[in-house]
Design brief:
The chain is mostly helical. 79% of the residues lie in helices and 0% in strands. It is built from five helices and no strands. The N and C termini lie far apart (83 Å).
């Protein structure tokens, strides 16, 4: 059976599926980046703001690397986050105007966001990805996992610090 040569830049069906998965990861990473930017701006504790900024940078780096991989496959890389996430951020902004946006609430929202990002990466890792792309996705997934686990540690540390401060004032 003779196969026709592909034109440069033309993606195969398999490549189309990989491009779609990578674009979904880009969109999800962009959403996380925007959420974490807002969290870093709103956080009162400097350690939290730094953790959110670090996670934001990890998402930005992931987006850029994934965009490069999409282009190498001959696809058009996603440039923005999702409309659903933009609507959620708008709703969160409205809620923040009428309620206090304390560090615990910010951490919980970021944990939910990072959990969603982790799930999207896990789904992509179930695909049959070519080795260079798999390596990028695995590395970015591990950075998201590390960031995700750092948030509960920070929350517990601040909870313990707050509890000690309350007992010290008694």
């Amino acid at each position: 059976m003779r196969t026709l040569p592909r034109h440069q830049g033309e993606a195969s069906m398999k490549d189309d599926k990989i491009i779609a998965a990578l674009n979904e990861l880009i969109e999800t990473s962009k959403d996380g980046e925007k959420e974490l930017t807002r969290a870093a701006e709103d956080a009162r504790e400097p350690d939290l703001a730094r953790a959110f900024s670090d996670a934001e940078e990890a998402n930005r780096t992931a987006s850029a690397e994934l965009q490069d991989q999409v282009r190498l496959l001959g696809g058009t890389a996603e440039q923005e986050g999702s409309l659903k996430a933009a609507a959620r951020r708008s709703w969160t902004s409205v809620k923040a105007m009428v309620s206090s946006r304390d560090d615990n609430a910010i951490m919980e929202e970021c944990e939910r966001c990072q959990s969603h990002v982790r799930g999207r990466y896990a789904v992509a890792l179930e695909l049959e990805l070519p080795e260079p792309i798999r390596s990028v996705v695995e590395r970015r997934h591990q950075a998201i996992v590390d960031s995700h686990y750092r948030l509960p540690d920070l929350r517990n540390r601040f909870r313990d610090t707050s509890a000690r401060a309350i007992h010290a004032s008694d």
